[in-house]
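pasting for ref
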Amino acid sequence: MKFFIAHLATETNTFAAAPTGLGDFEEVGVYHGDASVRDPEGAGAFLRHLRGLVEADGGEVVESLCTLAQPGGRTLRPVYEALRDEILADLRAALPVDAVQLLLHGAMAAEGYDDCEGDLAARIREIVGPGVPVGMVLDLHCHFTELMHSSSDAIVALKEYPHTDTDERGRELYRILKDTVAGRVRPVTAVFDCRMVGLWHTTREPMQGFVRRMQEVERMPGVLSVSLGHGFPWGDVPEAGAKLWVVTDNDPALAATLARQLGAEFWALRTRIGPEVLDVDAALDLVPAKVDRAGPLVLADIADNPGGGAAGDSTFILRRIVERGIANVAIGAFWDLGAVHICKSAGVGARIDLRIGGKCGPASGLPVDLRVTVRAIVLNHTQSALGARERLGDCVWVEAANGLHILLASIRTQTYGLDAFTGLGIGLADKALVVVKSTQHFYAEFAPLARQVGYVTTPGAMSFDFAAIPYRLRTGGYWPRVTDPHDAEL
């Protein structure tokens, strides 16, 4: 059994001004068939896991490209085409293969390509023909498209947000593909368009219960997999939005019935599953008067999440913390190359005037000028990121008046792990307030530390007014813009 594997991913915020270029992929790492060996705890973690599954069964692995980039604007056309074509060339050289398994995102768009994953899968199908099973693991913030569907034998989306189940979903798809190669199953898929746009955390009810419900259906005879693609709200492409699909063993009627049933159940939850979002001052009103063993208040700066394509340098929350004189705070990571450079030049212990953030446009706010002390400098810093390691680049810890501790990073990325801060010496348990530039992936590590977790909206790059997102390519027939886009269908 010979498996061809590859990993190509980025999440495209089509409203972001800056395109995604080759340098954005190189910042994380571009590996040409050796990521599982050269970077097994970072970019190559999933391919290392998948390689282990195949080889444990006595199979052969042909590993192709592995690269990913932080979310941003559309990928430049020559960049996408070069990355895609490397995978296709490797596949041609590897023929014959028994199966193809890919880790993609599902919301990658490039100049001239609204559906990069579908384009890649269709070209792979042309090469391997109809008899070789092709499967994709997708981020749950994917756009499930007809081209993906028609070009693949099975698609599995992550179920958890934050994404703590990547390896589990990889095992799920591997079993389906392995059994397909052996002739034990014949996967067929039916999809239900939920016609919803939003952001839904699986860390609380009723979404926790809906994940359990999908898993319950997966235990039914004949059902191979159930996925809910939440969609990516800031991706303006024609087939965007939440969709639920069911993969069965050669039973299209069962797949269609279950997809419609589960889709209707998810639709019925729509008013109960959205994030509870606070404005800046309402969130800061929750800061405890004194620190105790209950831990800090943890606030997510959701509109400035680099994981959604934002710049990671907005100052709206920082400015109000300073203006209100809130003490004993840790906040970050700010993507600010200039500030990092100045602090590195000044050195640890230097007391300097520093202009922080507000550099990438109106969604970043205005810079904040502070008198700071450089407390620590760590070169090539990394953070834990849902079972892997993610680079933050050269990082600096500066402290301003009133115990305001600020983390500055030279690589734009969201805050995942506690060690983003603690790796520079910034303690968190003794803080009154911790602010992270993330939407939800921080939750796995920060929630156990927190007395309370809050989600804060600002005039940042990611609008959470889903009804008002200015789509041009996606149709307007979705909830919450339309009260009932299904009319009498459900």
